[in-house]
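INTERNAL TRANSFER SHEET
From: sequence group
To: structure group
Subject: N-Acetyl-D-glucosamine ABC transport system, permease protein 2

Please process the attached sequence and return the structure record in the designated field. Keep the field labels unchanged so the import script can parse them.
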Amino acid sequence: MSTATHSLPRTIGAHAVLLTYTVIALFPVIIVIMNSFKSRAGIFGAPLTPPTPKTFDLIGYTTVIGQGDFIHYFQNSLVVTVASLFFVLLFGAMAAFALSEYRFRGNSMMGLYLALGIMIPIRLGTVAILQLMVASGLVNTLTALILVYTAQGLPLAVFILSEFMKQVSDDLKNAGRIDGLSEYTIFFRLVLPLVRPSMATVAVFTMIPIWNDLWFPLILAPSEETKTVTLGAQLFLGQFVTNWNAILAALSLAIMPVLILYVIFSRQLIRGITSGAVK
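Return from structure group:
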């Protein structure tokens, strides 16, 4: 009884902290989406209030769809993000399986080397990356972005997935080997289904920086054919006049895929985070 009494204030305090953090994190998103449905006068007159019949206006969305090729930018972002996620999860899971399953000289050093990729920002190598892409003829192509984002996401993917794969039962894998299964079959049919929560965690943590990135699209793929959503939104930023309706509408549309991904993978994401916490 006393233990429950003592734990109650801790529980209330923890929930209060989490609730406060949730409000702080969601506040900018709500403000952006809310103001995207207002007229310019409504945005500057009452930015913290919901749209009213007087201030409600879809001019931002009509401008985004009508001016500039926003649908094309959206498709580019979608192609880059999906392709990068596919390669990060595939190669990251394979590398994690190799590091966790096989013992060889340099195993620990290889894991440490990959962990350094988490601590050292990839943007420090921007000049070298640009020189490499120019020499390879990949400037102003989506391939350049996919390669960079795959390299950017692999260290975190290997780090997270290797810890989860170490928890997969050796008896299960050995039973598959006794039944004559190849290592690839064991990997794809036995191991991957058991680490799906961690795969969802990696997917969410990898997608958000890729989708929101402005740095590499601006440097490696600034042409009209390869612009992404974040780079396309810069069309409405001017030196003297800024179309805030269009910017807020573009940002609201750009937020949607991230929210949809979270709704789809939220259960797997929470399971992956909590299972890693109680390892």
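Handover comment: The first helix runs from residue 2 to 35. The chain has two domains: 3-57, 69-274.
Transfer complete.
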